[in-house]
Design brief:
By secondary structure, the protein is α+β, with helices and mostly antiparallel strands. The chain contains 6 helices and 9 strands; from the N terminus they run E-E-E-H-H-E-E-E-H-E-E-E-H-H-H. It comes from Gonium pectorale.
Length: about 260
């Protein structure tokens, strides 16, 4: 858990975070990926039959600071307040401020209706080393954690490595303008069935992903304007965590701009 006392110098990093993973190279390579959309939102798909999985990758630039993106990702129990397809979201275990296990239910089209997802989420601070903040996600082994009673009635889906969210600070579009962040999300999904129905693929690629993108933009544009909104309140409750992320993102951006002249 993060210490309640005066934070350590920012160069020491975030307490409790794991080392950066070695399997994020797939974020920078297009080999094997099919591009579905390529405008302000780049959306790609890849079938991994040897793993019984489908991979989805989304890339976009957002007019918001890194700490706001990290807050949206970290505050999992608030997902239903801005994503109508997430019907429930609960933290099952909290090992420290950036290392949790959660269970959520997601609405999908008939006849499946609702699926359940359990996953570990681990924050990795590599802002000083690589200029980015990484959240890795992966479903725990079956039976490793007790699920809510309601989970018995849900079809289960699982996340495989290297499912992740990566946030990289970018300079403002104009001097003195709004902070920006490059957001990269990769999901490697085991749907629990051998052949994923075409209508589910269409739903994910054509409806769910664009909806989440637009919902995130809407939240970033409005939710942080008033301090009594859920996300700003939560940032205040975890002030040390998000202040460290903010400072380190600013330092990483300054270092990048210095290198680029």
């Amino acid at each position: 858990m993060l210490e309640a006392a005066t934070p350590k110098p920012i160069s020491h990093g975030l307490p409790g975070l794991s080392s950066p993973p070695d399997d994020l190279a797939d974020l920078s390579s297009d080999e094997g990926w099919r591009t579905v959309r390529d405008d302000e939102l780049r959306l790609q798909h890849r079938h991994l039959p040897e793993r019984g999985a489908h991979a989805f990758r989304a890339t976009c630039e957002l007019d918001a600071p890194v700490e706001h993106l990290v807050a949206m990702a970290r505050e999992i129990d608030l997902y239903p307040t801005w994503n109508k397809y997430v019907t429930t979201a609960n933290i099952l275990q909290r090992r420290n401020e950036t290392d949790v296990t959660f269970y959520m239910t997601v609405w999908v089209p008939w006849p499946i209706s609702q699926v359940g997802l359990c996953s570990d989420a681990v924050g990795t601070d590599v802002l000083a080393e690589e200029g980015r903040f990484v959240i890795m996600l992966c479903s725990p082994k079956k039976g490793a954690i007790e699920l809510p009673e309601a989970a018995k009635g849900h079809r289960k889906i699982r996340l495989q490595r290297p499912t992740c969210m990566v946030f990289t600070p970018l300079p403002p579009s104009t001097p003195g303008g709004k902070p920006r962040t490059l957001a990269q999300v990769m999901v490697v999904l085991d749907p629990g069935i051998r052949h994923l129905p075409c209508f589910i693929m269409t739903f994910v690629l054509k409806i769910l992903c664009p909806f989440i993108y637009n919902a995130v933009k809407k939240v970033l544009a409005s939710a942080f304007r008033t301090p009594d909104s859920p996300l700003p309140q939560r940032i205040g409750q975890r002030a040390e965590l998000y202040e460290i992320v903010r400072q380190r993102a600013q330092e990483a951006l300054a270092a990048m701009m210095h290198r680029n002249g």
